[in-house]
Design brief:
By secondary structure, this protein is mainly α. The protein is 69% helix and 0% strand. 45% of the residues are buried.
């Protein structure tokens, strides 16, 4: 496969995953804003937290960096910036627009139904009075974004050939899933958090509102209740979202799926730097899961995200460097 095509598919997956996670975080922040009682400690999924999770994301290749974020994180301003602002590469509208443009150039690689789903997604956002929706009822807008993204990935599963093109598309989506989850956990987990401990006294429950907000934002509340037989304290939730490979939204699950996708796409996976690095990361996550508590959670999150950034660089160097050189010469 041409490096340019592989890169476009990879970033198509990243753009759609970024749009979905942005919608989930904004939806969760709106719900948390409504639920937070006056005088109580503000939950971690605040408007400043959303900006820290999403607003600082680096732009996709060819996109200009976003401008300086607002000094004060006003709800309306943050929601507008991350939903409507076409000048912000992290906004939902920008992500969907980029994904649609990439899909337009890949019509001979993706299925017709994939293109139709993505094109109708883009056009449906154009028919919305987005500014009014943010004021009167943003929940339906974010729900549509989540459903449209889920529809696209369902169509991929049913209609796209299981070849290296699909592998790069899925790799883009999964690395974005892992990165966004890590960003969310690093913002939500305090530096003095303790590892999950069933015998620990009650202070962990001070963070229960934050944990519930995080689970509801990512759609993992029911999965957590079925998998974990403990109250959703922030430490238990962070452990679940970082290590539980049975939950498809966890970091461990996303990293495993990313490794499998790249292993399928690469002609020589045994000597592939990103595949080898991912193998070490998977082993490290499993070791940390088994020995939880030996290293502070926030340090583990930072180290895993740093390693994931190196994986991202390895992917660019191994698969897309030729496309970048060709663009320079053109």
């Amino acid at each position: 496969m041409l490096a340019r095509i592989a890169q476009e598919l990879f970033w198509l997956g990243r753009d759609l995953a970024r749009a979905e996670h942005t919608a989930r975080m904004l939806d969760g922040a709106f719900h948390a804003d409504v639920a937070d009682a006056p005088g109580q400690r503000g939950i971690a999924l605040s408007w400043g937290g959303v900006m820290a999770i999403i607003g600082a994301k680096p732009p996709a290749p060819g996109e200009e960096p976003a401008g300086e974020p607002p000094a004060a994180f006003d709800r309306g301003e943050v929601a507008r910036l991350l939903t409507l602002d076409t000048d912000s590469p992290a906004s939902i509208v920008s992500c969907v627009s980029r994904a649609r443009e990439r899909a337009r150039t890949l019509r001979d690689v993706i299925s017709t139904e994939m293109w139709e789903a993505l094109n109708s997604f883009y056009l449906s956002l154009g028919r919305y009075d987005l500014q009014a929706a943010l004021v009167t009822g943003p929940y339906s807008l974010y729900q549509e974004v989540k459903e449209r993204c889920a529809l696209f990935w369902g169509i991929v599963e049913r209609t796209m050939l299981r070849d290296e093109g699909r592998s790069f598309l899925e790799a883009g989506g999964r690395i974005e899933d892992a990165d966004m989850m890590l960003r969310m956990l690093r913002v939500g987990v305090p530096a003095d958090s303790r590892p999950p401990d069933e015998s620990a006294p009650g202070p962990d429950h001070d963070h229960e509102g934050e944990a519930l907000a995080v689970l509801q934002a990512i759609g993992g509340l029911q999965a957590y209740r079925r998998a974990v037989r403990h109250a959703p304290t922030l430490e238990h939730v962070a452990h679940f979202l970082l290590y539980d490979g049975s939950y498809p939204g966890s970091v461990a699950s996303a990293v495993e799926a990313l490794s499998q996708a790249l292993g399928t796409a690469d002609a020589q996976p045994r000597s592939s730097p990103p595949v080898l690095r991912l193998g070490r990361l998977i082993a490290d996550l499993e070791l940390q899961r088994r020995t939880a508590g030996t290293v502070p959670l926030h340090e583990t999150l930072e180290r895993v995200q740093d390693e994931l950034e190196l994986v991202d660089q390895d992917i660019g160097d191994r698969y897309f460097a030729i496309a970048a050189l060709a663009a320079v010469h053109l």
